[in-house]
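Hi support team,

I'm filing this because I wasn't sure whether my run with 3-hydroxybutanoyl-coenzyme A finished correctly. The job status page said complete, but I'd like someone to confirm that the output block is well-formed before I use it downstream. Pasting the exact inputs I used:
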Amino acid sequence: MREITTVGVIGLGTMGAGIVEVFARGGLDVVGVETTQEYADRGRAILQASTDRAVARGRLDEAGQAEILGRVTISTDLGDLAGADLVVEAVPEIMALKHEVFAKLDDIVAEDAVLASNTSSLSITQIAAPTRHPGRVVGLHFFNPAPVLKLVEVITTLRSEPAVVEAVVAVSERLGKKPVVVGDRAGFVANYLLFGYFTSALRMLEHGHVSREDLDTAMRVGAGLPMGPCTLMDLVGLDVCHHIGDVIYSHTRSSMHAPSPMLGRMVTSGLLGRKSGRGFYTYARPGGGQVV
Ligand code: 3HC
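And here is everything the job wrote out:
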């Protein structure tokens, strides 16, 4: 396997920008690619804000921040990924879009470069199938916020080459992450279980069994979780939760993942959680954490 020193990240939304930060903090050169200059600027702003916060908290000095930011190139041209040893795709969760990106990558990167998808729930097998080298495709699933949470799921397909899986596990460990290798089923491991839990929480709210505050308190204080389910769904994004839940349900048909009408109504009403300023709770600044 070629050594992984340069990484490409496609899509610089919350997850993509966080993934760029993780690799740059780990000492790798990163090329982040977006479709438009506006989105590219937004991605750079997320990276800047996250590292500014680390400086403000005394976790990073200004020289360290400059070093991290200096390892990152932001571009609107996929062609700039030609030298990447590993590319992580973090574009919206639309299979046709993933296929388009992976087809282009086939023509851009070296034949022995590794291709990974950060999809939350779509099938890696399906993403890899139309590519010229499905053996070099794996899932590399980060958790939100990516710079903080240590877990990464490395998702393998029937075609994933063992050397590719080993290389992705090794680079994840170099980043200070804790990789787990899992098979390709809807929701993989963590989201399969987490979204079943979200669905149960939503049912309790729909039935008026408990208030959102008491539900969150029960799980935070009683189960020792950092956030209750409503706060966590607001963090993940209610539209994202709705989509992931639907994908898992469409594959499993398990009642544990049956769609919540209340969640659907919230999404249709534009209540998307922190990013829109309102979800289960209202936030002082869209994207910010302070509950008002
Ligand atoms: N980006 C970068 N760093 C962040 C951050 C962000 N968005 N949010 C928080 N941090 C950092 C802070 O700077 C701080 O760093 P420090 O300890 O070095 O100073 C540290 O995280 C702790 O932050 P806070 O003190 O502000 O707040 P908390 O202690 O409450 O922690 C939290 C915030 C890390 C978000 C914590 O509440 C948590 O872990 N919550 C659960 C998150 C979770 O379960 N995520 C998984 C969601 S599912 C998923 O992502 C799968 C996907 O497919 C949908």
